[in-house]
Amino acid sequence: MTTFLQATIAGLSLASIYALLALGFVIIYKAMQVVSFAHPAVMLFGAYMVSWFAVDLGMGFILSVVLGAVAAASLGWLSERVTIRPMIGKPLFAIAILTIGLDIVIRTPINNLIGLDIRTVGSPWGFNAWNINGVTVPYRSVAMIATALVITVLLFLFFRYTRVGLAMRATAIDQEVALAQGINVGRIFSLAWMMAGAMAAVAGMFAASDLAGLSQSTYIVGIKALPAIVVGGLDSINGAVIGALVIGLIEAYTATYQSSYAPWLGGNFSQVVPYVVLLAVLLIRPYGLFGSPEIERV
Amino acid sequence: MRGRPALFTRYEADSAMLPTTTQRVWLGIGLVAVVGAAIWLPRDWLILIATAFIASIGVIGLNLVTGYAGQVSLGHAFFLGVGAYAGAAFGGEATEKLIGMGLDVIWWVPLAGITAGLIGAAIAPIAVRLRGLYLAFLTLGLVFLGEHIFREWDSVTGGPGIGRKPGVLRLAGWRFDLDGEIAGYAITREQQIYWLTLIILVIMAFAAKNIVRSRIGRAFAAVRDRDIAAEVMGIDLTRYKVLAFGVSSFYAGVAGALLFTVTGFVNTNSFNLLLSFTYIAMVVIGGAASITGSIMGAAFLTLLPRIIDGLGGAVPFLEVSSTGLLSTSQLERIVFGALIIGFLIFEPNGLNGIWMRLRNYWKAWPFSY
User: Fold this and answer.
1) Number of residue pairs across A and B with CB atoms under 8 Å?
2) Distance in angstroms (rounded) separating the CA atoms of residues B253 and A113
3) Contact B341 A112 (CB under 8 A)
4) What angle do CA A134, A138, A143 make, to 5 degrees?
5) Is B22 helix (H, G, I), strand (E, B) or coil?
6) Hey, which end of chain B has fewer CB within 10 Å, N or C?
7) Rounded-to-integer distance, Cα B188 and Cα B178, Å
8) Optimal mutation site among B62, B137, B317, interface A, most CBs of chain A within 10 A
9) With 80 as the cut, is the pLDDT of residue A211 above it?
């Protein structure tokens, strides 16, 4: 039972990283029907900027995170404005491939800056943890889960109650009609990419905090958020959160139990189990658990 | 129709591989260039061009499924890997740890293709239910699962960090991967690999050209352009999608089997997402739905590092050492990414599109306004 609870806490921490990334993917997708393969690279950039502000410039941790989020948001804005905007109306697949190019352009210099050493992001939690009936609850996990929860709730309130949120929802339903209602759709696109970028920076900071450290392979975390959005359905905000929970928990349980119950699956199987879930979900529901089925017009 | 090369009065002439005299002349010039290159170019260039030939086979495969049949595949690296290891298992030497049957090259190259093709066709039924981006995700998942399998199945792959040798280029006792002598003329290892890969590429390219100009190719295009309309016209979607994946994977298998004979070593971490991205980039830069474009794209991106290396000395902020702002290999990556973006925004038809425009310009000369 202790092991199970321990795995659950690890899973929830992972899920909060995936949720922050998946929400970014979904916000961009809902705004302009683009899946950005550059999102993990933006995450890496954000995490690096946090590390740079906190470690190299010696700023406070909270300030560094805010500045890192701003930097990643600016990168998101810039990449949308320069490369994605001219492609609006082109086939989805072409834009998806374009974001692959974007990913390479962003990630190569960042990898160069990160280098081969593992960097820290100046996070304050360290090894500190509460001990509740033998279950270790690290400060870091609590911070991750709480932050993800707060951001998710704020996001829901934003979409539900603000004018801009309403404009974003309208744009998601129909861009041209939204334009006819006086919504500046271009600005909504920018906003979507900036929100996604900022959340990616926070996710990247968490993924690279404390023990994990920031290295070139932190990128893998960003890619693993893709199964989460597929499980949840590309165009569902709720789905993104639920998908992140599913993927995070399954990954953590696999990491805990697979070596004793199914060793034949090989070492580090937990790293690929998200893709097994992805395959399984696509087999059963080709548009994800909460995605809207594509309506075919003849 | 003498004197009116663009006038076709029969369907056969319209869909011929080389419909005009100009194209036949160009093919002739190309052949002369290819033979001349084999004789005059130094060894390192020959091996680079041979790599481009092999990559072309893989890109043609990806173009069949993505460019012609419109099914997005990010999983090409997986099929290249399957081909590489099937080739190594059928054609490589057995050791106490590794499986290897030591077949001749004429057997293990097709067998590698067939293995990959069968796996592709087996996965296709899942893919048939999916469209657009979800298909991209499925194939992306395949790359990661494949990487895991390659790491774990060490009786075939040698395991991570250890790797294994690929299939041996041997035909009836003759070794293509060693310097040799034919009728008194010395022929280097590089020249032999060049000729071997060239012959395989020519066979595969002509086969692909024949696939796309036949009933199957037209069905692919119909599925790509509007799958529902294609179904209404009586095209069996499942059948053609499975076929597209199968054929594409076959090409990837052949390319994968050959790709590592050049370096002589297969590592388990070679088949990652970046390799898939590279092949996608070759399709985009070469030109989607074009066999010629596939070859152009593969050649361009394979030779690009060499060109940038050449620039390394000339451009001031570039340093080959690690102390510079960017090393040449990093610049090469960035150029590569920027090319994908640039081509998609400014020239969606790729190099082939540029070539077509140039051709039409001269074709209509002097009325090319």
Assistant:
1) 124
2) 36
3) no
4) 140
5) helix
6) C
7) 7
8) B137
9) no
Q: Which alpha helices (H) appear in B233-316, and where do they start and end? A: 237-259, 273-286, 291-312
Does position B366 have pLDDT exceeding 80, yes or no? yes
Strands B174-175 and B170-171: antiparallel
- Is A269 at the interface with chain B, CB within 8 A? yes
Nearest CA-CA partner of A105 in B48, B281, B272: B281
Q: Which domains does chain B have, with CATH numbers?
A: 21-363 (1.10.3470)
Task: Pick A97's closest partner by Cβ from B134, B148, B344.
Answer: B344
Residue matched to tokens 């202790």? A2
Burial of residue A104 (number of CB atoms within 10 Å: 0-12, 13-18, 19+): buried
**CA pair distance A39, A28, nearest whole angstrom:** 10
B330·A271 Cβ contact <8 A: no
Q: Torsion-angle region of residue B183: left (phi > 0), alpha (psi -120 to 50) or beta?
A: left
Cβ atoms of A85 and A189 closer than 8 Å: yes
Kindly provide the ipTM of the predicted complex, given to two decimals. 0.88
The chain B residue lying nearest A297, using CA atoms, is B228
Closest-CA distance, B190 to chain A, in angstroms, reads 32
* B78 contact residues in A (CB cutoff 8 A): none
DSSP code for A295: P
Is the Cβ–Cβ distance between B112 and B167 less than 8 Å? yes
**pLDDT tens for each residue of A116-166:** 888 888 888 877 888 888 888 888 899 999 999 999 999 999 999 999 999
Residue A253: its H or E element: helix A237-261
For residue A296, what pLDDT band results from cuts at 50, 70 and 90? low
Interface list for A 15-44 with B (CB within 8 A): 35
Question: The tokens of B28 are what?
Answer: 């002739």
Crossing angle (nearest 10°) for helices A92-114 and B132-152 = 40
Beta-carbon contacts of B224 under 8 Å, excluding residues fewer than 6 positions away, are: B68, B69, B70, B71, B289
Instruction: Name the strand (E) or helix (H) holding B8.
Output: none
Instruction: For residue B69, give every residue at least 6 positions away whose Cβ sits within 8 Å of its Cβ, in sequence order, or none.
Output: B220, B221, B223, B224, B240, B241, B244
Radius of gyration for chain A, computed over Cα atoms and rounded to the nearest angstrom: 19
Helix/strand/coil for B186: strand
Match 């929970």 to its residue by tokens: A245
Question: For residue B13, what are the contacts with CB-CB under 8 A and spacing of at least 6?
Answer: B19
Query: What residues contact B8, with CB distance under 8 A and at least 6 apart?
Result: B1, B14, B19
B336 vs B123: CA distance, rounded Å: 30
> Do B83 and B251 meet the contact criterion of CB atoms below 8 Å apart?
no
B235 conformational bin, left if phi > 0, alpha if psi -120 to 50, beta if neither:
beta
Q: What token pair was written down for B45?
A: 């260039």
- Residue A101: closest CA among chain B residues belongs to which residue? B337
Say how many residues make up chain B.
369
Which residues lie closer than 8 Å to A116 by C-beta, 6 or more apart?
A: A216
